[in-house]
Amino acid sequence: MPQMRMSMRKRQVMEAYMFLLPWMLGFLVFSLGPLLGSLYLSFTQYRGYQAPSWVGFDNIQRMLFKDKLFWQSLKVTLLYAAGYLPLGLVFGFSIALLMNQKVRGILVFRTIYYLPSVVSGVAVALMWQFIFHRDFGVLNAILGWFGIDPIPWLLSERFALVAFVIMGLWGVGSSMIIYLAGLQGIPTDLYEAAAIDGATVWQRFWRITIPMMTPTVFFNLVTGLIGTLQIFATAYVMTSGGPNYATYFFSLNIYDTTFKRLEFGYASALAWVLFVLILILTLLVFGTSKRWVYYEHDVERRPA
Amino acid sequence: MATRTTTRPRIRPTEDYQPTVIGGHRQTSAERALVYMILLLGALLLMVPFLWMLSTSLKPLGEVFEFPIRWIPTRIVWSNYADVFSKAPFGRYLLNTVFITVVAIVGNLIGSSLAAFAFARFDFPGRNLLFLVMLSTMMVPAWVTMIPTFIMFNYFGWLDTFKPLLVPAFFAQPFYTFLLRQFFMGVPKDLEDAARIDGCSTFRIFWQVMLPLSRPALATVAIFSFFSHWNVLLGPLLYLQSQEKLTVSVGMLFFQGEQGTNYPVMMAAATISMLPCLVLFFLAQRLFIQGVVVSGVKG
Question: Which residues are A44's β-sheet partners?
């Protein structure tokens, strides 16, 4: 007699794949497919009207040896990351420490500090563009109270990136809130035990708070890195990469190469370089994490 | 439910235990005063951009260029806000953005919860590998897939339609799938088992048992999805062209005139565009912050 019913197990697996179908389709059509497509294109010259022609490693060679804009956009992006990430860490962490205080009204403060993180995109860029205005902007007006001469923020090669870092730090609330959650996850009995053993405040900070927070720092560092290297909208709106390419972020370079210079092959190669760069830097952080990230299950735990 | 505006610390210090800034002993009142001072100063600094935007959006054009700064306009010029709608089809942009955002949120919820259910409740060959593959796609910059995707949508004839912005939303987003899976795994299985014994199909269990139980998680995903679709620039910039199809994010660029930018009107447009985000944040603060925290701590 033919088997009338599939076995339970088989049916379960079938059902699971039914539920996964939308993701798998999307993965193939919108992730894997385009990913392989752009990998292929990055070895070609393709301007849209003719079929792509294979050029091997020409695009990479051009990038490394002939394309000043590639190096400039790489420099800008890495400089920004090097400026923003450490400052974001310090500010985010310190504000989280303040927010962890049990003082009256702290919830209102948390809301206020988090607020800048809920807005983003073009509106924020337009707002900051005006804030940074050399003559009528509020930033120079405030600096003026302290006797500082007007700074031509977005118009100056020297200060434009600094302006982006300042704007980035305004949104530090999003990492602050994660640090705060990390802080609140530290069991208070650790502090109490340390206090009983006579540890000073500083000792407790360095020996308990900091080690317990390293996984959170690690998380923020990795996500921050991935986000920072792809910054686009604000630069597109505020400076379009100027002045003189001082804020020509890598993503702007990809965008221009695609839609202004119509070099789809070369733009794909650029995008892949960005991808590989993100992978390498992330792996680097992961690689060093064993040395500085502390996970509770690394050490023997007493039974709860 | 959503109006409560507190984030609750998950571990409550005992009554006489007051952690100080660096974690330790009872606070003196001098320390507390210092903390307040710093907190207030910081809060003020962070609010300046918003206040400045709001103040500018209500000024007569001439007062923008006054020195020293005039914070309170001599007269409130509401017409700046009317100008936003008369100088550009801003109402149309708003409608488009609302439509795209709502459809995309629904799509995100459906697609991601289906996949999350599979990862949370089924045991099948390759599950962990597939989950890993899904998570790793979060690391792929949109820039890498942009050109082939653009060519593909062009081939479909989808340029200058909403389809490139809507259709992909229906296929599970990795981050949302991850969030929902975490939540689903925490839902007790008893109810599902009971439903199964009563002869419920798996899909009905998903639809009528799991999803209703997961409202908080679904709401969190909906909120995240709202913020990302409301604010996004790149997609609409690439795929929309006709004036009447633009979203707020692209349409707003119109106010950034090359010369003689009308700052009050531009700031009014920025204010209008930020307003839904701010309102939603105040309404759903608890859910929102919970979501951020879950993704950060358990991630």
Answer: A54
Model confidence pLDDT, tens digit, residues B220-233: 899 989 999 999 99
Check if B35 contacts A (Cβ < 8 Å): yes
Token pair belonging to A255 = 């965008």
ipTM (interface pTM): 0.86
CB of B156 less than 8 A from some CB of A: no
pLDDT in tens, A19-48: 999 999 999 999 999 999 999 999 999 988
Q: Tell me what percent of the residues of chain A surpass a pLDDT of 70.
A: 95
The alpha carbon of residue B114 is apart from the nearest alpha carbon of chain A, in Å, by 5
| Short-list A73, A257, A98, CA closest to A173 | A98
Provide the whole-model pTM.
Answer: 0.87
Say whether B171 and A192 touch across the interface (CB within 8 A).
no
Q: Is B260 on the interface with A (CB under 8 A)?
A: no
The dotted CATH code for B89-255 is 1.10.3720.10
Q: Does A81 touch chain B (CB under 8 A)?
A: no
Nearest 5°: phi and psi at A54? -65, 130
Q: What CA–CA distance (Å, rounded) separates B140 from B173? A: 13
Q: A with B: how many residue pairs have Cβ under 8 Å apart?
A: 307
What is the extent of the structural domain holding A199? 66-298
- Domain limits, CATH 1.10.3720.10, in chain B: 89-255
Q: Is A52 a member of any domain?
A: no
Tell me, yes or no, whether A130 lies in a domain. Answer: yes
